[in-house]
Task: inverse folding
């Protein structure tokens, strides 16, 4: 199966009404975070099906997809990489990891990050040096910062919380709402690991930082708390 065939399939399945909705949902207007992005109108389950058919595309073809102006083509490339990573040996996993980082310019919206970073960057760094995440967290690029914090979901699932907490401190004063949501989400995920002491870890972190957290970050972090406890955090009375 070739890149041309994939693009023909994407084109044949295009849906103008879905595309219109996606243009609004992913904030593609001038000055918005997804400004200028193009959609043809494929839903994620459809893109997953296409990805499974084209798993054997070579890296040159995947590079072209990740450089595409069409959002769905970039996501399909990432879904291919995620699928291949899960089935690869250690050498090929490292190759996919490096390819991902090299082509991260095309990973430029929250869905592209969220559906790929934990499963490639996070998984690859489970038992390795995580310096790259701290570099990405300090980037001027919004999506690189989101890649950094979302990648830690792979660690959280293994009750490994320290990197998430360290990156959360770095991103505590971030100016972008999408980072506030991402950090709050990861802190909430830590809290859900009750069998590993995650709730205490999250609350200890919040008690140190909640008063200076962006409101959205805090709201996301405490979403699963009882109503009375949420009110205490939001009123600053913990």
Result:
């Amino acid at each position: 199966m070739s890149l041309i065939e994939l693009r023909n399939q994407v084109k044949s399945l295009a849906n103008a009404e879905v595309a219109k909705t996606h243009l609004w949902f992913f904030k593609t207007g001038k000055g918005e975070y997804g400004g200028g992005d193009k959609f043809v109108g494929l839903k994620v389950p459809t893109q997953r099906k296409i990805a499974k058919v084209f798993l054997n595309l070579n890296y040159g073809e995947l590079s072209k997809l990740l450089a595409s102006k069409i959002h769905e083509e970039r996501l399909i490339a990432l879904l291919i990489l995620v699928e291949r990573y899960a089935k690869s040996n250690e050498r090929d996993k490292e190759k996919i990891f490096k390819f991902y980082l090299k082509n991260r310019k095309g990973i430029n919206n929250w869905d592209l990050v969220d559906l790929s970073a934990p499963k490639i960057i996070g998984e690859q760094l489970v038992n390795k040096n995580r310096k790259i995440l701290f570099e990405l967290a300090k980037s001027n690029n919004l999506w690189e910062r989101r890649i950094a914090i979302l990648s830690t979901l792979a660690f959280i699932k293994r009750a490994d919380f320290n990197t998430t907490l360290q990156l959360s401190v770095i991103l505590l004063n971030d100016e972008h709402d999408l980072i506030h949501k991402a950090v709050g989400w990861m802190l909430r995920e830590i809290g859900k690991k009750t069998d590993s002491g995650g709730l205490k870890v999250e609350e200890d972190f919040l008690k140190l930082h909640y008063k200076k957290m962006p409101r959205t970050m805090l709201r996301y972090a405490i979403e699963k708390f009882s109503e009375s406890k949420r009110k205490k955090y939001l009123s600053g009375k913990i």
Residues 63 and 102 are 10 Å apart (CA to CA). DSSP finds 16 helices and no strands in the chain. The mean pLDDT is 97.
